[in-house]
Each structure stands twice: as C-alpha cells, then as structure tokens.
Write a structure and sequence with these properties.
The structure is a homodimer. By secondary structure, the first copy, chain A, is of the alpha/beta class. Chain A has a single domain, classed as Vaccinia Virus protein VP39 (Rossmann fold, 3-Layer(aba) Sandwich), CATH 3.40.50.150. In chain A, 36% of the residues lie in helices and 27% in strands. Chain A contains 7 helices and 11 strands. In chain A, strand 1, helix 3 and strand 2 form a beta-alpha-beta unit.
C-alpha cells in the first residue's frame, strides 16, 4: 500500500464502530432516501443468481439480498466491519483486501453473477484489483455494479480531474469520523478504466435527491466482455 | 413535426446567417477554446475512412475533416446553412431532415465509418431518427459520435430530468438570436436511448473549460452492435 491507501485503510479501522451505528440507525439521509434503494433496484433488475458485495461494510446490502433469496457473500478489508456483519447472524462474510479477492473460497460458489461495489471504491488501485478479480470470479458476461458519489457533484470547487483528495468529513449523522483521503474519478475515467480492462458499460443511472432533484450518486453497470 | 420541433426548425431558419457569421468569426469562446478541437480529436482518433456530419451547419467540421483527407458529407435541415456551406467551395453538402437521412445518395459512399452529431441533436425524436438511419448508413461496428452540452452543467437550476426546455439565448457573440426550444437529456438518458436501439457506449469524454476546469461538454462514442 502507498501512503494514501494506508491512511484510507487505517481510517476505516478507526471508523468501523461509528460507521456501523450510523448505518444501522439510518443516520445518512441520502442513503435512506435514495441510494440504498437505487443500488438494490439495480441489482435486482439484473436478476442475479449470486453476488459478491465488495466492501460490504457492516453488511446491510447482503442481508437485503439474502432476504430476497439471492445467494452471495460480503467481503471487506476491515475486520471490525466483518465482525459487525457476522454478529447479525449470517456467516457469509469474509475479511479480504481487494487485492486478495481471488484467494478465498466462497462456500460452493465458484463464479458469481455480479460483483457489487456500493460506495466502496475509494482508493486509486481498487478498480484494477476488482476488475482483475472479476475475470476470475465472474460468470461469462458477469456484471460489476458500482455506485459512487456523482463526480460532477462531488467535485466541489476543485478542478474536475481524477486524483487523490482529502475528505472534509468529520461527522456523519451523530458520529465522529476519522477523515481519510479518497481517489476522485471523473465520469470519463470511471468508464475508461473499466473499458481498458475488458468490461463494457451496460447501463448508467443517476439517482436524484428527492428535494433538490439533482443527481447525488451515479451507478455504473459494466459487463465482462 | 410537433409544435416544439416546428419552432426549433423555424428558429434555425431565422438564425442561419447570424449563426454562420458567429461560427466563421469565432465568436463562441467555448467552441474556439475547447469543443471544436475535442470533437475533431475524437473523430480522428477513430481513424474513419468516411463520415456523415449530421447537422453540419455552415460546414466547418466537414472542411476540417476534408482537409485531413477524410471523405464525407454534411447534411443539415436548414437550406440556408447548406447554401452557406456550399459557398465555401465543396459540394458534399445536402439538405435533409434527420427523418430522411436514408433517402439520399451520397456520391459513391454507401456505408459510412461514422455519423457525427456535433451539438446538433436538439429535438426529442432526433436520437430515434439518427439511430435508425445509422443501421442503414453505417458499416458494421460503425460509430455515432455525439457532442452536446454537459447535461449536469446545462441543467441549471431546473430539475435533472429529460424534457423540452426553453432556451434563454438571445445573443451569441455579437449576433442576435431567435430563441428555440430544445430537448434536454440526462447522461443516463443519452446512454439509455442509444443502448435501446442497438448501440453500445464505447467511449465518453468530458472536455473541460481551460479556466474553470469544469466540463462544458460531453462526447459519447456509440458503436453499432
């Protein structure tokens, strides 16, 4: 890991318990009102048999999909978050760095219908790790589904170019946060990086805030070629 | 044509001579500084043998491509603009509604490498007409290249949803303009509309303003499936 990646990794270690509380107490309004249902709908529309939730955090999305009868696994680099996920009763959660995704056994599942990355691609090399893992872990024409902050909105006043950024987060809901760097990508870059690795955009969605009517996130569905 | 399309058509009739002057006198800064070279680079990168410039206006882009030895034709619904284009000396310009693109003979060219729509998809049904024409006029795996205002920037204060809008334009450079309605599309809609018609996004670019460092336009390259 380089320095930014190490700081990112460490911050999630520090934030694990406050993040788990923020999610479980529904403290992040944009998630509760818009982006949770947007990712769920996008996944369900694809009618997957199996999924791997990459960067599953405390596991809410896995549990939603399990409850709809879709089999899958959640992985996260944070042992604390996987611990919190397992405490809800299901064992289909594993600790893994994104660079190690292909070194695990996921029960009887060898190839997944889709990988899901819900606000979980935060580092520079994550796209490369996940795209590469997809070529081993996905069925033919499998999908990678990515939700992230809408780049044009998330860009703020800075120049619209891909690169590491410092986050200003110190609070989420009532929870104190340990800030972390994150790697900003333009819409152009997101698509280019996956296309360069033998995926092709199948669908793009721009979930909008219900009050401002402006997009707050973007969802890419890439298909393995 | 419905009422909006008729008003759009009429406004270009009214604007033809002032538009021709505005382009030829380089009065539109964003074009001179950014978007003209962005569309040219995108086309040239694809190394096309032939092109059809759909909504070519007074013909500057055709002339640039002709001068690089690429054969092609320009079409525009405005007889006045095609007249202005021909006055520069080349005869490869034709008047055509977008709904009639397949009813013309383009010299010896039967199938084009690409269709180019540079800020020229302004009506609601234009995408359907052009996508449909592409299936007759394009070579196998031919491309449709679209440049338009970046939806998130062009959206302004209105809700981010596709629909007809009134333009506020009354001046371009030193020229008086007759305002026209135009059909706004989100990034999601642009991609969805072409994907629904058997094209697939190959590349997306977001040319940025050199001073603000924010995207001012977006370029989609769709490939026929």
């Amino acid at each position: 890991m380089d320095e930014n990646e190490q700081r990112l990794f460490d911050s999630w270690k520090n934030n694990a318990s406050s993040w788990t509380r923020a999610i479980r107490n529904q403290q992040i309004e944009s998630r509760v009102l818009v982006t949770n249902s947007a990712i769920l709908e996008t996944v369900i529309e694809l009618n997957p048999k199996t999924f791997l939730d990459v960067g599953c955090g405390e596991g809410w999305l896995c549990r939603e999909l399990f409850s709809k009868g879709i089999d899958g696994w959640g992985v996260d680099a944070s042992g604390e978050l996987i611990e919190a996920a397992r405490q809800e009763g299901d064992t289909r959660f594993l600790v893994s760095l994104y660079s190690d995704l292909t070194s695990h056994k996921f029960g009887d599942t060898v190839h997944f219908s889709c990988l899901i990355c819900n606000f979980s691609i935060l580092g520079q090399r994550d796209v490369a790790y996940i795209a590469s893992a997809g070529h081993s872990l996905l069925k033919k024409q499998g999908k990678i589904i990515v939700q992230t902050l809408h780049p044009i909105i998330a860009c703020g006043d800075a120049a619209y170019t891909s690169g590491w950024r410092e986050t200003a987060w110190h609070l989420i809901g009532n929870e104190t946060f340990h800030p972390a760097p994150w790697y900003f990508r333009t819409v152009e870059s997101w698509i280019e990086e996956f296309h360069a690795r033998n995926y092709r955009l199948l669908k793009l969605r721009e979930p909008c805030h219900l009050v401002t009517n402006k997009p707050i996130s973007i969802i890419f569905v890439f298909e393995q070629q």
